[in-house]
Design brief:
The complex is a heterodimer. Chain A is mainly α. Chain A has nine helices and no strands. Chain A is globular and about 55 Å long. In chain B, strands 1-6-7-8-5-4-3 form a seven-stranded antiparallel beta sheet, with helices on one face. Chain B is globular and about 65 Å long. Chains A and B meet through helix 1, helix 2, helix 6, helix 7 and helix 9 of A and helix 1 and helix 2 of B. Chain B: Keywords: Membrane, Transmembrane, Transmembrane helix.
Chain lengths: 163, 285
């Protein structure tokens, strides 16, 4: 089997999962699709090196996260993190329901990535640190802060709904 | 909290209705190959430039460092060249700069429940038995073959993509107004031979008028043909004038499964196509 065939086999098997991770990060299926394609293109270009890694999926996710963070960085001059999470149309359509996804969207990109890898992908702290190239201590402290923030946001929303 | 968090994330994700994944892998392979080709070209160009720079630089250094004296031919004198590493950073930087962000895979928004479901079929299209020589496919050949395969009607607005992709556009009017079609051809790595049966997928995409539905045919050798049947005409992207779906899914499937499609096509067909459609406008994707 040639390198290209191996890549296609891997990509076909894992593209959906990568896109799901991308969606968790950006909450936009269209953007998730683009991020997945960009990540797969980069993976294709570095396939020989990637194929030697112990965990190819983790390698692919590392690329995906970099693509996501790069994308956000490029757009950061025109956007800023905001406490008002939802676009009006989205908010109306969901009748004031703040979802976990929305709450995640309130976290800074890197913290969101930590939470998603840790609790959605079930990665260990060490593995998250490796994928995001962060010290383990930073992953731990940011995880604590992010969880506190999520707890706070979701509690507020419950009060708004049932108060 | 953490278990709740995990459960909430999974529950919310389960309630999502993601659009079809589309040909994201094929698009990544095509983009990757294009970038590779550019890198190779730039590498070759860079090596040439490096050689030239080395000669000029060496000549300059020699001219300025040597004491002025009458020039005497030295047939045995070797010309030291600059080591390749001296120029490679700029070359690789150039290559990086030249990398184009991969284009978007046509995104297929979530179809509503009333939409016809996606379906797949195997189309026995037969094997092309061209007696004559064969040539690398061109957009001209694609347009030419497309016009041969389309049902009767008036064709217009033939156009090609701006990049080097085998991606073409054609309007067809069967008497009740024009409709737009776009066709892409590519090849994924595969170990098989061409064979006579294509796997054809028909994917409805209701919220994207330029791809009202997409028909993708694939052969065992990796050859892939995608036809986008639009319900609008090409406009600015934000505002596209209305058009008609000029092919039924089955008609589009029959066209996509024609055995004459391929990265190498009948030479006569390529020549005729280039003659007829060699100079057509570029469409904005």
């Amino acid at each position: 089997m040639t390198d290209d065939e191996q890549f296609v086999e891997f990509a076909n098997a894992h593209a959906e999962r990568l896109r799901t991770t991308a969606f968790m990060l950006c909450r936009d299926w269209h953007l998730a699709q683009d991020l997945t394609q960009n990540a797969l293109t980069k993976l294709f270009l570095s396939w020989r090196r990637a194929a030697q890694s112990d965990n190819l999926m983790a390698y692919a996710q590392k690329i995906l996260l970099r693509v996501f963070l790069d994308h956000r960085r490029r757009r950061s001059s025109s956007e800023s993190a905001t406490e008002v999470l939802l676009e009006p149309a989205y908010r109306e359509s969901h009748e004031l329901r703040l979802t976990m996804m929305d709450a995640l969207g309130c976290l800074p990109e890197r913290d969101r990535a930590i939470v998603i890898l840790r609790y959605f992908e079930d990665y260990s702290v060490d593995r998250v640190a490796d994928v995001l190239e962060l010290p383990v201590s930073v992953v731990k402290s940011q995880t604590r802060r992010s969880l506190a923030k999520l707890r706070e946001l979701l509690a507020e929303e419950q009060l708004a709904l049932f108060g | 909290m953490t278990e709740d968090l995990r459960a909430l994330m999974r529950a919310e994700l389960n309630s999502e209705r993601p659009p079809p994944l589309g040909d994201v892998v094929g698009a990544a392979v095509r983009d990757g190959r294009r970038i590779r080709r550019r890198r190779r070209r730039l590498g070759t160009l860079g090596a040439g430039v490096a050689g030239l720079v080395a000669v000029v630089l060496f000549g300059g250094i020699a001219a300025h460092s040597e004491p002025r004296r009458p020039v005497v031919a030295d047939p045995g004198g070797a010309q030291p060249a600059l080591p390749a590493t001296a120029v490679s950073p700029s070359v690789s930087a150039l290559a990086r700069a030249a990398q184009k962000s991969p284009g978007s895979v046509p995104v297929a928004p979530t179809p509503p429940a009333t939409t016809a479901p996606e379906r797949s079929l195997a189309v026995h299209s037969g094997i092309e038995r061209a007696a004559g020589p064969r040539k690398k496919a061109t957009t001209g050949a694609m347009l030419h073959l497309l016009t041969e395969l389309l049902p009767p009607g008036k064709t217009s607005h033939a156009a090609v993509a701006a990049d080097e992709d085998l991606h073409v556009q054609m309007y067809l009017d069967r008497g009740d107004g024009p409709g737009m079609l776009r066709l892409t051809m590519g090849q994924l790595p595969a170990g098989g031979t061409r064979g006579g049966t294509a796997s054809v997928s028909i994917i409805p995409v209701p919220d994207n008028c330029r791809q009202s539905y997409v028909v993708i045919s694939r052969w065992p050798d990796g050859t892939s043909v995608q036809i986008d049947v639009a319900s609008c005409l090409a406009g600015t992207g934000r505002v596209d004038p209305p058009g008609r779906e000029v092919l039924t899914p089955d008609e589009a499937a029959a066209i996509a499964a024609d055995p004459r499609w391929g990265l190498v096509m009948d030479a006569d067909l390529v020549d005729r196509g280039d003659k007829e459609f060699g100079k057509v406008p570029v469409f904005a994707s």
